[in-house]
Structure formats: structure tokens, C-alpha cells
Write a structure and sequence with these properties.
Elements lengths: L1 H26 L3 E2 L12 E4 L2 E7 L3 E3 L4 E9 L5 H7 L3 E13 L23 E7 L1 H4 L5 E6 L6 E5 L2 E5 L11 E12 L5 E17 L2 E5 L1
Parallel strand pairs: 5-8
Antiparallel strand pairs: 1-3, 2-12, 3-5, 4-13, 5-10, 6-7, 6-11, 8-9, 11-12, 12-13
Amino acid sequence: MWGKMLKRVLIAIVLSIFTVLLLCSCGGKGFRSSFLAPNTNQTGRFSDGGLICDIIAEKTQYNIDEVYLEYYYGHITGIDNYIEAMEGSGLFTFVSVALYFQEYSKQENYIFSASSTSVEDYKNIEGAYFLKEFSYSEFYSENYQVKRRKNIETFNNVLTYSHNERIKVPPQIFNGVKQGFVFFLCGVYLVKETGEYSFGAIGGIETYFEKTDTNTVKLSL
């Protein structure tokens, strides 16, 4: 009896080890961002006006046509509403909070900068990929709320998101000359004087890749 039980346990252990090895060989160990409130010492992840995001990747190696990443995003509660401040200036009209990917290389300027970017069509920007947008009432609700909780051991502010979703990275990004991309959420505004569009509050996170062959990429933060 004990011999049979031991045999079953050994088989279960071997199968478990084999499964782990198989998963590692197929895609490598995944990664995740910090899920901490933003600060000035962070690189590759940024937040302005209360918009913030984080990422979880279940593995590091992907077929370029099947890169799906889990993004957590929303607005941090308790931070002054940047949108109301922009509209209060009388120069802008709020349009939406929009999601994008941008082709990116290290040390490059972000396309969605409130101080330098003005475009005629915010859904069609060179080097960027528009995903979707939200109205004010839709985004600034409990559905996209991000709460902060102080970790008493590390004194860091840990973030808890109300929303996350699996998003596909456009395959075109991996066929370009750049070696990275940025996931953005940002406020879109109509500039009353020019009729063009500008960007205000913004949150984003950088991800980098290396092509291991024609159809495969290895991702990292």
C-alpha cells in the first residue's frame, strides 16, 4: 500500500517538474511592474494628473502575432482632477481619455506630451496606435478607480486597480526599426484657438523587445 502511494507521489512530482520546465522552455518566466504609487525615482513608468498603469506578462517570449499583455490602468483617487483644471483655463475642451501604443526607443521623447504635441487627428498619429477612448463620466468612475494603500513594512504606497484587461500589442511594432513600445492613457483636449488636439494628464509604461528570430520576440521592462 505504502509502495503504491510513494510511487504516485513520485510520479506527481516528476510531472510537476516536467510541466514547469516545459513552460519555461516555451515562454520564459514572466514579469510585472511595481504596482506602487509613482515617484521621481522610477524609470520606464510615469504618471501625471492622476493617470497610472501597470503591467503583468505571463511569459517573456511571444510570437509577434500573439503578444497579449495584461494592463492595469485607471485614475488614482485623491489626486486633483487635471481635466477640470485644463477646461477651467478656457483654452481647451475635454474630448476623452484615450489609450494608445507608441513605437519607442530609449531616451526618445514621448509623442503624448502636453507641452509639445498638437495634432489634427488624435486617432491617426504617425508612430502611434489608437486603441479606444472613454468619456469623462465613464472613466472617472469607480470602474477605473485606483486606490493607494500604505505598506507598513516598506512604507511604499501599493496600488489596487479596479480595472485590468488583456490587450494585444500591434504586430507592426515588432517590424519597425525601434526596439520598444509604450502603453499610454492620456487626456485628449480640443484646442479652441486652432481646432487641433492636445494632450494633458498622462500615464504610461515602457516595454522593450529583442527579436530572437523572424517571428519571435523576447520582452522586458
